Amino acid sequence: MYDFEESRLLKELKQRKPKRVLLQVPEGLKKEAVRLAELMRKKAKTEVVVSGEPLWGACDIAINEAKMVKANLIVIYGHAPFYKPSFPVIYVEAHYLKNIDPLLKKVLPQLKELKKIGLIASVQHLHQLPKVKEVLEKAGKKVVIPMKKGHAFYDGQVLGCEYNAVKIVAKDVDGFLILGNKFHALGAALAVNKPIILLDPYNEEIADMDSLRNKIIRQRFAAIEKAKEAKVFGIIMGLKEGQQFGSVEYAVEKLKKLGKQYVIITMNEITSDKLINFYNVDVFVEMACPRIAIEDVAKFAKPLLTAREFAIVVGDGKWEDLLERGFL
Q1: Of residues 155, 132, 7, the one with CA closest to residue 80
Q2: In this structure, what are the phi and psi dihedrals at residue 2, rounded to the nearest 5 degrees?
Q3: Cα separation of 57 and 242, whole Å?
Q4: Tens-place pLDDT, residues 2-53
């Protein structure tokens, strides 16, 4: 169901001639890792090491891991360029190839109230946008595909933390149709206050994100209110090169002025098992991927805030500002 672009990959490998490659694939595609590694060894005459660590996004390039195994090239599947890494990388986007015509027929009734529709997708489904646009326009809809902005590599592309293009066109549309999964659709719902309809080709699902959005917003409000009573803050510095959000210096300065205690903590992966050991910390603020705090709230015993939410706690913003600007 996915295009692994073996020919293009082998051509690039033969041109670059790496001695050893670190192969990163998302969890759902790891079953292909053995085949891909064998293909590269036999056809491109290069050693291959497969990363067994989770791959959370294009921001999660395993540069330190590649250096440890003495690789001189990373091949990363399922993503497009997100930032300029300090290591050679080949991106293979793994476009989803299954026919989505039956789903397009099913989604039209969900869009009947929307005359102007913003059309967006995760990278696996971007190539399907022209077909979707054509179907929507034949149904009498005006369709807008946002121009790329921020970390997005393509027009119409959204990532887990990148919805700037969506925000720019939000005022010009009645709602959005997104091709992807609930992760990307929820991100869009938290970025703009517009109807978000998900068309998930892989799970063959159509969903309105309104209910899930409201649930998450209630959770974020509760976390922020609880954090306002905190005495000791843990400021988490993410160690991944592509996951740098917010400012540790800003957080420290604000906490000093408020007379709060704080500790700066470094983490590669933020998990509840790690945080629980800091039992005397009341609230954590993460300067890594904002989706960790938003998505995994039920996993943490204590509030975990994003940089934007922290600004509200220390008085540099209001809850209403966050609702208007978006959580991402």
Answers
A1: 155
A2: -120, 150
A3: 9
A4: 999 999 999 999 999 999 999 999 998 999 999 999 999 999 999 999 999 9
Handedness of CA 264, 267, 271, 274 (dihedral sign): negative
Closest Cα partner for 118 from 77, 172, 69, 160?
Answer: 172
Q: At what angle do helices 33-44 and 6-16 cross, to 10 degrees?
A: 50
Which CATH class, in words, describes the domain spanning 101-208?
alpha beta
Give start and end residues of each alpha helix (H) in 244-284: 248-257, 272-275
Kind of pairing between the strands at 175-179 and 20-24: unpaired
For the chain, give every domain's residue range. Answer: 6-92, 101-208, 214-325
Q: How confident is the model at residue 105 (pLDDT cuts 50, 70, 90)?
A: very high
At 119, the amino acid letter reads L
CATH architecture classification, 6-92: 3-Layer(aba) Sandwich (3.40)
Query: Which CATH fold topology does 214-325 show?
Result: Rossmann fold (3.40.50)
Closest to 177 (Cα-Cα) out of 115, 233, 231 = 115
Enumerate residues 6+ apart whose C-beta is below 8 A from 105.
Answer: none
Return the half-sphere exposure (C-beta side, CA atoms, 13 A cut-off) of residue 148.
Answer: 13
How many other C-beta atoms lie within 10 A of the C-beta of residue 54? Answer: 11
